[in-house]
Specification:
By secondary structure, the protein is an alpha/beta fold. The chain contains 39 helices and 16 strands. Bound molecules: adenosine-5'-triphosphate. This is ATP-binding cassette domain-containing protein.
């Protein structure tokens, strides 16, 4: 027992350092809304300065002034990064913010390697060898100091955010930046202060940790991962939960050390526990209002341009074959290119910030090498084995993405990559350690491809593989799976409402991405006679993500750009061998970090989009100088659209824009008898904590009838819709759709069975075109699409119902317009067209006429009626506008405080005194409830 206690006390030192770094992350997040992945790197840089000055008494300064200067350096780094980078990112995407901090991390890390090298430095305890006794066990002065400082900073930060004007301003800015800006709160003072504090805490944590972990550029930089995990449990704002988890992590690691548990396990298990906690606390779909409208990186239309492809492949082959050095650089480039494509699929298309590609590649490499060295499988089968193994691991790493999103997912994937690295890739018993594993020389059709002997031959194979992968990734973009990914990336709730399995799409993206990474790793396994797996650390994942985002994370050309400029790639070979600048490598790494930050400020959509718009502008300039005939030939209408990443028109389909010869009608939903009960709900109840939002509501919806639901704000109308459609996880009660119990089905499964809905805030896919928004509701739902689209993408066509809706709602001209560019009234029409296209048997409309003008409201009212009369659907209409309700509905239900106050024909119900009191009380006696136009 006392021994356990002793180990627990020892663990408090490391845990305190985790907590200190994590507290810095919390301070910075609360002050500027940014999760600083460079927190550990700031601590590392400051620690090197301290170590340089102190060097265990050999330097020029005693410990205290050296610590003070180290902490000041950390403070200055934090403030400088805020002033030069962060403050320009306030309206940037989450991804740009993450990548900018990763860029700073790369900059500090490569600068430290350049200046100090990678050899570890050790220090004796900073506060001497003294100890205090705590319940029979010893605690060193260092540990005591770390603990006291952590607790003092915890109290200080709590007071800062609760009691000071600056802290309250920080909270205001964090909770509602627009409102805070409107009352004149400037983000600058809070930003500077919190980044200064963050930098100081990172420095403190780093310096105090040197005697425990030693000092290397990577150890302290990677401290950010457990620190992020601790801050994640405290949701990046809770100071004391963060401290508690940080300390617990350190203690757990120390206790495992007592039982001599494998070091890989020690560094992975506590973290794994945190991941489980966070994943269990996550949700399958974001809640109402949780989806923030944010700018997403642009994505290409996915057109394969055969000429560009052939030119690129020929250039690649020529370079690959030109000399062994270029061949080698080409192998590096293509391997990086595959990794970048893997990032493109999961992060660019599906919007999941995953920092795991190197771990997946490492695993693919490991399995391919084992297949060669143990099973002596032929080269191609080894590649296949590596690829498939990575897919399995990818599904495992992607698992949390089903319930965790955004930067939280970035942290979790980082942690899982670290676990893969520690548990598999760095385990000598499995991989042969630094000795590596002997692989057989690769051959193809009898041709020896041994990269050491024939780098050009192997490079040619790699170029062909990359070209095929690039075409497959472009195909995915044009297919059903691509639309699913983009729908999920844009709006998970909207995607589920049209029947897309959000979890399925995320896992599909993770699997495809893992296949590409695994293939990259498998190709690398044969790079030399001995495969080693030490080069697949999290820094490689970070660099790949950062470079791909800089190139353009939505564009295959962006991935190629990232590959060409990567370490050891074609550009680096050009600089070191053609320009003969052999010492450039370290500088290139430093410039890369600077470049990444600069790009996130100036061109967050990537270099490629910028180059393409430059090309566009030059083209237009040239065109204006050309004779008229030549100009007409040049100005093909689809050029700008394809290059700007806008959607291209789908394959041949009847032209919806032609004037209709007969009045357009919506085609009848098949298999639904007019007047039959389509949806029956009994005793539906939804609670949110202590609030009962819907109290035992029962209702029936019949085909061809419109039921209106009215009630004051907060009556529970939307919650009732959420419960019926599967968006309220806490809902109880029985819900039957066409006689089938759907109460336990997820939202997307109910949508597939014919339950269509709109949302108050529309939940459209803002960065997709109107046509693509509608197509997402029409696409097939099979899993086969994830494989089939790689080869034969289904571009999709608008069905009869969609075409009719497009004409009825006057959307013909907007079909290829990106939805974000439409005014609100037109966006409402898109939401309705997307719904109609699915030909649902039940239609649930949540305030669909809100914000429409008088004429638009009348058209909308007619359309809601047509949904029942022509489409034959059972319609439930939540609406505040009594004119619309009276004119459209056959039956009205009045909700008040979650309960049915009254129900019946509109003319009767809307006249009831109790209803008027509850909801219509604002009407004067002179005002009459209009007579319904029909029953
Ligand atoms: N996610 C949630 N967490 C906690 N309470 C919630 C949540 N969603 C809704 N509520 C509460 O449930 C009650 C019903 O809200 P709901 O939005 O369904 O009403 P509503 O009739 O649709 O109102 P409105 O007309 O303003 O849209 C309200 O008291 C609301 O505050």
């Amino acid at each position: 027992m006392s021994e356990l206690w002793q180990f627990a006390l020892v663990g408090l030192a490391g845990g305190g350092a985790y907590a200190l770094v994590a507290l810095g992350i919390v301070a910075v997040y609360r002050g500027s809304g940014i999760l600083n992945f460079s927190q550990g790197a700031i601590g590392m840089a400051a620690s090197y300065v301290f170590w340089d000055l102190y060097k265990e008494g050999d330097g020029s300064l005693p410990v205290v002034p050296a610590v003070v200067i180290g902490v000041l350096v950390g403070t200055a780094l934090g403030v400088a990064f805020y002033l030069l980078v962060v403050r320009f990112l306030h309206s940037s995407s989450e991804m740009a913010k993450v990548v900018a901090t990763l860029g700073f991390m790369l900059l500090l890390q490569s600068a430290a390697v350049k200046i100090y090298g990678t050899q570890p430095h050790l220090l004796k305890p900073l506060f001497g060898d003294g100890k205090v006794t705590v319940f029979g066990a010893f605690m060193t002065y260092d540990t005591l100091a770390i603990l006291l400082i952590t607790i003092a900073l915890g109290i200080g930060l709590t007071l800062l955010f609760r009691r000071t004007r600056l802290g309250m301003r920080a909270t205001a800015l964090w909770e509602n930046p627009q409102a805070a800006a409107a009352i004149g709160v400037s983000p600058l003072p809070t930003g500077i202060t919190t980044w200064a504090l963050g930098g100081a805490m990172a420095a403190f944590g780093g310096i105090l940790l040197i005697p425990i972990t030693g000092l290397t550029p990577s150890t302290l930089t990677l401290l950010v991962i457990p620190a992020m995990a601790a801050a994640l449990v405290g949701r990046f704002t809770g100071i004391w939960p963060t401290i508690g988890v940080g300390l617990a992590l350190g203690v757990a690691e120390s206790l495992m050390r007592k039982y001599e548990i494998n070091s890989g396990v020690i560094s992975s298990v506590p973290f794994a526990v945190i991941i489980v906690v966070v994943v269990l606390g996550g949700t399958a779909l974001p809640g109402r209002g949780e989806v923030l409208l944010r700018r997403l990186p642009r994505v290409s239309a996915g057109r394969v341009k055969p000429v560009s492809l052939v030119v690129a492949a020929v250039v690649g082959l020529v370079i690959a074959g030109s000399s062994p050095t270029w061949g080698s650089a080409m192998i590096n480039t293509t391997v990086f290119g595959l990794l970048a494509l893997s990032v493109l699929v999961v992060t660019g298309y599906a919007g999941q910030i995953s920092v795991a590609c190197a771990a997946l590649a490492g695993f693919g490499s490991f399995v391919a090498a084992r297949a060669s060295s143990d099973l002596h499988l032929p080269f191609l089968l080894c590649l296949l084995a590596g690829t498939l193994a990575a897919v399995l691991l990818g599904l495992l790493i992607g698992g949390p993405a089903v319930r965790v999103r955004g930067v939280n997912l970035a942290i979790i994937t980082l942690g899982l990559s670290l676990a893969v690295e520690n548990l598999i890739l760095l385990q000598p018993s499995m991989t042969g350690g630094s000795d590596g594993m002997v692989v057989e020389s690769p051959t193809l059709l009898g041709l020896d491809l041994n990269p050491s002997a024939y780098p050009s031959r192997y490079a040619v194979v790699c170029v062909v593989v990359l070209a095929i992968a690039a075409v497959a990734v472009l195909n995915v973009r044009r297919g059903e799976s691509g639309r699913r990914y983009l729908a999920v990336r844009a709006n998970e709730r909207g995607a589920a409402s049209v029947g897309v399995s959000v979890a399925g799409a995320k896992l599909g993206a993770f699997a495809t991405s893992a296949a590409l990474a695994g293939l990259a790793g498998a190709l690398s396994a044969f790079r030399f006679t001995i495969a080693d797996f030490t080069g697949y650390g999290v820094f490689n994942s970070i660099t790949t993500l950062a470079f791909t985002v800089v190139g353009g994370v939505g564009f295959v050309a962006g991935a190629v750009f990232a590959a060409v400029t990567s370490q050891g790639g074609l550009f680096a070979n050009f600089v070191s061998n053609v320009l003969d600048l052999t010492t450039i490598d370290a500088w290139l790494a430093i410039f890369s970090g600077l470049f990444v930050m600069d790009m996130m400020i100036r061109m967050p959509d990537g270099v490629i989009l910028h180059m393409s718009s430059l090309k566009d502008r030059t083209g237009r300039l040239l065109a204006s100088a050309l004779p008229v005939g030549a100009r007409a030939r040049r100005d093909r209408p689809d050029t700008a659209r394809a290059e700007s990443g806008r959607a291209e028109p789908a394959a041949a389909e009847p032209d919806a824009s032609k004037p209709a010869e007969a009045p357009v009608t919506l085609p009848h939903v098949s298999g639904v008898e007019p007047g039959s009960t389509v949806l029956a709900a009994r005793d539906v109840r939804v609670t949110y904590g202590g609030i009962v939002a819907v109290k035992d509501v029962s209702l029936e919806l019949a085909a061809g009838k419109v039921v209106g639901v009215v009630g004051p704000n907060g009556a529970g109308k939307t919650t009732l819709l959420d419960a019926l459609t599967g968006f309220a996880p806490s809902a109880l009660g029985a819900i039957e759709l066409r006689g089938r119990d759907v109460g336990r089905l997820k939202a997307h499964a109910r949508a597939r069975l014919g339950m269509g809905r709109t949302f108050q805030n529309l939940e459209l896919f803002d960065d997709l075109s109107v046509r693509e928004n509608i197509l997402t509701g029409l696409d097939g739902r099979g899993r086969a699409a994830y494989l089939r689209d790689l080869v034969r993408p289904r571009r999709g066509t608008l069905n009869e119902a969609a075409r009719a809706a497009v004409v009825l709602l006057d959307l013909e001209r907007d079909l290829d317009t990106v939805v974000a560019d439409l005014p609100q009234g037109r966006r409402r029409m898109v939401a309705i067209a997307r719904l109609v296209a699915q030909q649902p048997a039940v239609v649930l409309l949540d305030e669909p006429a809100a914000g429409l003008n008088g004429a638009e409201r009348r058209t909308a009212g007619e359309l809601f009626r047509a949904l029942a009369d022509q489409l034959g659907a059972a319609v439930l209409l939540v609406e505040h506008n009594i004119d619309v309700v009276a004119a459209t509905c056959d039956h009205v239900i009045v909700l008040h405080n979650g309960e049915v106050l009254s129900s019946g024909p509109p003319a009767e119900v809307l006249r009831e005194q109790a209803v008027r009191d509850a909801y219509l009380g604002r009407l004067t006696p002179a005002e009459q409830v209009p007579e319904p136009e029909r029953h």
